[in-house]
Write a structure and sequence with these properties.
Elements (H helix, E strand, L loop, with lengths): L8 E5 L2 H11 L3 E5 L2 E5 L6 E5 L9 E7 L2 H10 L23 E5 L5 E6 L2
Length: about 120
C-alpha cells in the first residue's frame, strides 16, 4: 500500500520563529514555511515537517541525526554558532561519545528536542 509513498517525518516545537532561526541560520538548513509550519529541506529529497504545538513536550530521544565526515570539526563549528552540547556520562571532553557505535554528540533545538551529529564510516 505505501511502497511508492514518499513518507516524511515531523516533530513539534513551541515557537516557529525560534525554530526558523535555529534550523535556518544556526544549522544552515534550507527551509520553507507554509500554513504556520516549517519544512526542513534536507539532502536526499526527504523534507522534515516542523509544526507548532501549544503544549509541546520535548522529545526524550534523538529526533534528527546529521551525518558528518569529521565529528570534531562539526562540534567545533556548531559551538562557534552558539550550540551547546549535552553532557552525559561517558562522553569525552568535547561531549562526544566514542565508545559504542559511531562517534556521536547530542544537542538540543530551542524547543528542547534532541538532535545529533554522528560520524559515519
Amino acid at each position: 500500500m505505501f511502497e511508492h509513498t514518499k513518507a516524511f517525518s515531523g516533530f513539534s516545537v513551541d515557537d516557529i520563529p525560534k525554530a526558523r532561526q535555529f534550523y535556518g541560520e544556526t544549522l544552515g538548513l534550507r527551509l520553507s514555511e507554509a500554513n504556520g509550519m516549517l519544512r526542513l529541506h534536507i539532502a536526499g529529497d526527504r523534507d522534515t515537517l516542523v509544526y507548532p504545538k501549544d503544549n509541546h513536550t520535548p522529545a526524550t530521544f534523538t529526533i534528527l541525526n546529521f551525518p558528518v565526515d569529521d565529528i570534531d570539526a562539526a562540534v567545533d563549528e556548531l559551538r562557534t554558532r552558539g550550540v551547546t552540547f549535552e553532557e552525559y556520562d561517558g562522553l569525552d571532553e568535547k561531549g562526544i561519545q566514542r565508545v559504542y557505535g559511531p562517534p556521536i554528540a547530542w544537542f538540543r533545538d530551542p524547543a528542547g528536542n534532541i538532535l545529533s551529529v554522528i560520524q559515519e564510516g
